[in-house]
From TrEMBL:
Keywords: Acyltransferase, Transferase. This is Thiolase family protein. It holds the Pfam family Thiolase_C. Residues 5-248 form the Thiolase N-terminal domain. Belongs to the thiolase-like superfamily. Thiolase family. It comes from Prauserella alba. InterPro entries: Thiolase, Thiolase-like, Thiolase-like_sf_Thiolase, Thiolase_C, Thiolase_N. Residues 261-370 form the Thiolase C-terminal domain.
């Protein structure tokens, strides 16, 4: 069995829906990131033993269909012989794409895979059921209605209430996420991982001056008695992220550091409490040890806190440079953004040796991964 290792990782800045990336389709967002990752890795250097990329695996949720991974690979100039496959595991799509690429490396199918995710809420096509007249809809079903298929916001309110997560604690968590992201952006800690697209060179969403007192003024966004608000929840965003997954043999020949995947788990639970899907997956990979860095996707503060508490993770250790509440949540890309963040912090900055990346997704699914630095 061949161990999979990430040796390069990049992402676009995360743009607001209708913001700085509004004119870019999913393939146009993903292509420069794929190209940058390949350039970083210098696979063609002497002695690598790799002729090129074996496949491109990208997560995507909202279309336009037509296998964006293949289109992005062609747009990136990877050659007509490089295939592509697009993965939809809802918000976990980007991380699922990376674990699928890692599984292919372990199986010996190839030795170099580009994997990640992309989402363009700004250019996603409108959808409608074929009624007369057509009935527009914003999302597909996550589960059969009789099993419970709530929208994510009301489900987050339910999860937070059942877990006893107070509104003030959620606001404090969100304020910390913004403060950390603003500090990281200002100190240049995110620069190395970013691939500018158009005129956008930095994440658009992080806000300075978000205090608990200021966040307390926001009204519930989803249910009358709920605790999730527009300020302690993620935004709707555009962005792309990708990593290069290679075999340990290739990494050693190249002589570069990387992140080795030591454990991954995909699990599922109650679709009516879809925000808790990550908990059984995290518990599984945490059997391998305690991570130095945790990157958990902050879709909603209450939901994130409920997951971290249930998995026994100190909330202060999660998202040290801010998470999705501050940076944004480009659905199909967000899981890959977590791995890019781990790579930046652990490999590039040397701030620890092990990391956890995890998130919940529609339908009550969760994906978690554990990584360790190799040099």
């Amino acid at each position: 069995m061949t161990e999979p290792v990430v040796i390069a990782a990049r992402r676009t800045p995360i743009g607001r829906d209708g913001g700085g990336l509004r004119d870019y389709t999913v393939d146009e967002l993903a292509a420069p990131v794929l190209r940058s990752v390949i350039d970083d890795a210098s696979l063609d250097r002497a002695g690598s033993g790799v002729d090129g990329v074996d496949d491109v695996v990208l997560g995507n949720v909202f279309g336009p269909g037509g296998n964006p991974a293949r289109v992005a690979a062609l747009r990136a100039g990877l050659g007509i012989g490089v295939p592509g496959v697009t993965v939809d595991r809802q918000c976990a799509s980007g991380l699922a794409a990376i674990t699928q690429a890692a599984a292919a490396v372990r199986a010996g199918e190839g030795e170099a895979y580009l994997a990640g995710g992309v989402e363009s809420a700004s250019t996603a096509p409108q959808r409608a059921w074929p009624t007369d007249p057509p009935t527009p809809y914003s999302r597909a079903p996550f589960a059969p209605a009789e099993l419970g298929d709530p929208d994510m916001g009301p489900a987050a309110d339910l999860v937070a209430a059942e877990a006893g997560i107070s509104r003030r604690r959620q606001d404090a968590f969100a304020a910390r996420s913004h403060a950390r992201a603003v500090a990281a952006r200002g100190e240049g800690r995110l620069d190395r991982e970013l691939v500018p697209v158009g005129g956008l060179t930095a994440d658009e969403r992080p806000r300075s001056g978000f205090t608990v007192e200021r966040l307390a003024r926001f009204r519930p966004a989803f249910t009358d008695a709920g605790t999730a608000t527009a300020a302690n929840s993620c935004g709707v965003n555009d962005g792309a992220a990708a990593v290069l997954v290679v075999s340990e043999r290739v990494r050693a020949r190249l002589g570069v550091p990387g992140l080795r995947l030591v454990a991954s788990a995909t699990r599922a639970g109650d679709p009516a409490r879809l925000g808790l899907g990550a908990v059984p997956a995290m518990r599984e990979v945490l059997r391998r040890g305690v991570p130095d860095v945790v990157e958990f996707n902050e879709a909603f503060a209450g939901q994130a806190l409920a997951c971290l508490d249930a998995a026994g993770i100190d909330e202060e250790t999660a998202s040290p440079d801010g998470g999705a509440i501050a940076l944004g949540h480009p659905w199909g890309a967000s899981g890959a953004v977590l791995v890019v963040r781990l790579f930046s912090r652990l490999v590039c900055q040397g701030l620890g040796s092990t990391g956890l990346a995890a998130l919940s997704a529609g339908g009550g699914i969760g994906v978690a991964t554990m990584w360790t630095v190799v040099r």
